Amino acid sequence: MSSQSQNRLLATAWAIVGSIAVSPAALAQDSGPVIDSVTIRKEMQRYETYYPEFHFHDPSGTVHFIHREIIATSSPKPLTAKDGIVSISAEQQAKGATYAGGWPCGAETYYVTLNAFLMNLNGQKSNVVEYTIHCNGG
After folding, report:
1. How far is it, in rounded angstroms, from Cα 74 to Cα 113?
2. Among 19, 93, 109, 131, which is 20 to 30 Å from 3 by CA?
3. Region of residue 129 (phi > 0: left; psi between -120 and 50: alpha; otherwise: beta)
4. How far are the Cα atoms of 13, 43, 51, 58, 119 from residue 29, in angstroms, in the given order?
5. Angle at 98 between CA 94 and CA 101, to 5 degrees
6. How far is CA 67 from CA 53, 55, 116, 119, 129, in A?
7. The whole model's pTM is what?
């Protein structure tokens, strides 16, 4: 094949590829949820209670679950992390939303480090984030 024929073939191929349009909705379905950051708010009740706030976005707007697991702790008692249900509108999720958890410390002094990720109804998982809560100075 001559170089002129190869150039015409490449030009035709690029014209075909360039004419394929992808809709924003199709792009949104392919990209999963993203946790942009985690901030932690503390409230003092009888004991400290911490509220990890997961700032996220999901173009599909279908995030419905948060999974959390403890990866390290100095707690004198066994601890468990609970998964949660995310009930935030699809429109808000697409713009950017915040899901707030909660961790009641109790009287003990300890730290707990957790991993968390979000999952949408399409089965797509977000990035995993790690955060640490210091109860009563632990």
Report:
1. 9
2. 19
3. beta
4. 27, 38, 30, 9, 13
5. 140
6. 14, 15, 5, 8, 11
7. 0.77
pLDDT computed for residue 13 by the predictor: 36
- Given the DSSP bridges, would you call strands 110-120 and 63-73 parallel, antiparallel or unpaired? antiparallel
Q: State how far the Cα of 133 lies from the Cα of 70, in Å rounded to an integer.
A: 11
Joined tokens for residue 72 = 């390290």
Which residue do the tokens 């400290």 mark?
Answer: 48
CATH 2.60.40.10 fits 32-135, yes or no: yes
Tens-digit pLDDT profile for residues 70-117? 999 999 999 999 999 999 999 999 999 999 999 999 999 999 999 999
